[in-house]
Amino acid sequence: GEDVEQSLFLSVREGDSSVINCTYTDSSSTYLYWYKQEPGAGLQLLTYIFSNMDMKQDQRLTVLLNKKDKHLSLRIADTQTGDSAIYFCAESNSGGYNKLIFGAGTRLAVHP
Amino acid sequence: DAGVIQSPRHEVTEMGQEVTLRCKPISGHDYLFWYRQTMMRGLELLIYFNNNVPIDDSGMPEDRFSAKMPNASFSTLKIQPSEPRDSAVYFCASSPGQGWNAEAFFGQGTRLTVV
Fold this sequence. Notes:
The structure holds two protein chains of two kinds. By secondary structure, chain A is mostly beta strands.
């Protein structure tokens, strides 16, 4: 079946890099996503990566994909207090209907 | 476009009462999703629609839950009768398509409290 797992908490100092990890089980996953949820708000897409890519960089964000190990990570460089939020990993495949499966979310706390 | 609009933002109801949550997706989006978020279970997909047709309702917890999409611009999620364990934040999301275009746009959510 489909399953996405993440660690629940991460605490970092302001200015340091944050690395949030995710593992998934569906080998047919075609697209993998990172969503951000700020307090009291819905989820917003941060970035996505296609399964035939190893890395994607977007400003302070770097996504690494190890398809063999089914491991996805999100690195946030120069983490700021505004990055404090819950980060969700999600997967979908294009083999059928669009269906996003989310992990439980990683709560990132940034402290001075 | 104002984004996905959900109403109400907060709902407090007594056990046994019927609750109806509403969602207006982004115009032109073919997919609509209902998710439930709790501390214990995280974000769960309840049901999703494609072109107003329910495609997968395997996440609906039980018969007390039902969802409809009478037209492309409106969907409801109904719980009847409601129970305290239904307390959660319910999100509606819409998406324009599949593959790379599968980005889901989320509403602000409805926080439901059943007492």
